[in-house]
Design a protein that fits this description.
This protein is mostly beta strands. Helices cover 12% and strands 42% of the residues. The protein is elongated, with a radius of gyration of 45 Å. 21% of the residues are buried.
């Protein structure tokens, strides 16, 4: 009975494991290869190209800069009409390119072409020769993320002489590795999962007569990356499906350690290191995990490096670093605050609509505009505020002329005898763009009433006439002086009379 119970427990565990694997298979967004769904338009010449790919297009080189132009056509419905295109190349002392992140989001043109342009910085001491460029193209469709890889060869002829034209390891003398070419051109195409190493390690005859086997370095590269086609939302966790592949067709990799390096403190990873005792030739290694972005993370592409330390079968150690870009997106948050307009206006008057635009998020607002629409109300302008950095606010004002309710948007009378005055509603439209150029709009209503213009009579009260009375004042002064003189003479006479009477008595 005990043995039967153990067997049943084992069967249950196996069933649960199988069920979990099926769930992962059906529900995880794993990018899929879609060979032939994205192609290079080899028959047409576009701006920046001296010839089409079919006619032997070569990128232009000027002042240590190579300008690469590649036209892509999509034979499927692409979400948002955008492709993610990146360029990588072989690293080494002989590589003429400076390593940078050349990934771009390409919008579909009116004629249905996704035209990828980038400027590759070249080393001053570069050697002449032919070098491969690997283009990884990803698109998001209704079925999920699809990706294709292309390889084109560019010629360096303005560098230092002495280097023979180089082919990619394992390629034939004419540059075609497996016979596949871009339709309509002579450019070879690297198919997804193509081996990067030579198919056979051939012995070389030494002068001593002994033979020594040449061992080539097995290559490790990023084979899957689910995030170039979509951005990480700040404040959320997302599943990052990523895998590395041993691109060698014959050599296994031993004692492999993978280390994830990221300088951003706003992104948290579940794991930053992995160990694999062995990776067989052509084997893919799953490095998928959930990553969390903080709410205050800047809206930018975060560079992440995957460092591979491993050994070949002879014990030779190698150190390889692959870089990927994790785009972070901030949710734009903005509002129109302090909206003010009179509750009633008079016909033919001009009143001001005042407000404040506030960027309350952590992302930039692009092409901020405020406009007004209303029956019988006519704004004098549309207010354009340009780009607004995070955390700032701007005051705005729009003068609005009050007409009548029977006018159309151009100020023409719709019908004679119609209602001219009364309640009306205006709409304030606040709009801005995100990083992808998509327009976001907010609207607010303004209620007011258009009144008949008032006729105001101005009554001016007449002021009493002011007369010049200086002569009256003068006459009063003269009379006063005369009265004083008379009084003085009267008193003087009385004084003399008293003196005469007193003198007659003495006699």
């Amino acid at each position: 009975m005990k043995n039967k119970k153990i067997k049943l427990d084992g069967i249950c565990k196996c069933f649960c494991l199988l069920l979990g694997m099926l769930c992962l298979f059906f529900f995880l967004p794993i990018p899929a290869r879609a060979e032939g769904m994205i192609v290079i338009d080899a028959n047409k010449k576009y701006e920046g190209m001296e010839a089409s790919f079919a006619q032997g297009y070569e990128p232009a080189i000027q002042k240590n800069t190579m300008t690469l132009v590649v036209p892509f056509l999509a034979r499927m419905d692409v979400k948002n009409h955008r492709l993610q295109v990146g360029v990588s190349f072989e690293k080494g002392e002989t590589s003429p390119f400076y390593y940078k992140n050349y990934q771009k989001s390409i919008r579909e043109s009116e004629d249905g072409v996704y035209l990828y342009r980038c400027r590759l910085k070249l080393k001053k001491n570069r050697m002449n020769g032919q070098y491969p460029l690997h283009l990884l193209v990803q698109a998001q469709t209704a079925e999920g993320i699809v990706q294709q890889e292309f390889t084109i060869y560019v010629e360096i002829s303005d560098g230092q002489p002495g280097q023979e034209p180089t082919q990619e390891e394992g390629s034939s003398g004419d540059g075609d590795e497996d016979g596949s070419k871009v339709p309509g051109s002579d450019l070879p195409v690297s198919e997804p999962g193509q081996d990067m190493d030579p198919p056979v390690s051939e012995p070389v005859q030494e002068p001593s007569g002994q033979q020594e086997e040449i061992s080539h370095q097995p290559r490790l590269m990023i084979a899957q990356n689910s995030l170039p086609g979509m951005a990480l939302q700040a404040g959320e966790s997302s599943l990052w499906v990523v895998a590395a592949k041993n691109c060698s067709s014959r050599q296994a990799i031993e004692n492999l350690k993978v280390t994830l390096l990221c300088e951003s403190k706003d992104i948290s990873f579940e794991k930053t290191s992995w160990y694999f005792a062995q990776a067989a030739a052509g084997q893919s290694l799953d490095l998928s995990q959930n990553i969390t972005v903080s709410r205050k993370a800047a809206a930018e592409a975060v560079a992440v490096q995957l460092q591979f330390d491993y050994e070949d079968r002879k014990g030779t150690s190698y150190n390889v670093t692959e870089s990927v870009s994790l785009p972070v997106r901030q949710t734009q948050q903005a509002e129109l605050a302090g909206l003010s307009f009179p509750e009633s206006v008079y016909e033919s008057d001009t009143n001001s609509l005042t407000f404040q635009v506030q960027n309350t998020g952590l992302a930039i607002l692009y092409n901020v505009k405020v406009r007004f629409e209303g029956k019988g109300l006519f704004p004098e302008k549309e207010l354009f505020l340009g780009n607004m950095e995070a955390g700032i606010s701007l005051d705005g004002e729009i003068p609005i002329f009050a007409g009548t309710l029977d006018m159309d948007a151009d100020g023409n009378i719709l019908e004679e005898g119609g209602e001219k005055h009364g309640d009306t509603v205006g709409t304030v439209i606040f709009s801005y763009e995100d990083e992808q150029g998509e327009v976001i709009e907010q609207t607010q209503k303004v209620h007011t009433a258009i009144k008949k213009p008032q006729v105001v009579e101005l009554k001016v009260e007449k002021e009493p006439e002011k007369t010049n009375q200086w002569w009256i004042t003068t006459a009063v002064l003269i009379l006063a002086v005369m009265a004083l003189a008379i009084i003085w003479l009267y008193l003087r006479m009385k004084h003399y009379q008293r003196m005469g009477m007193a003198h007659g008595r003495e006699r």
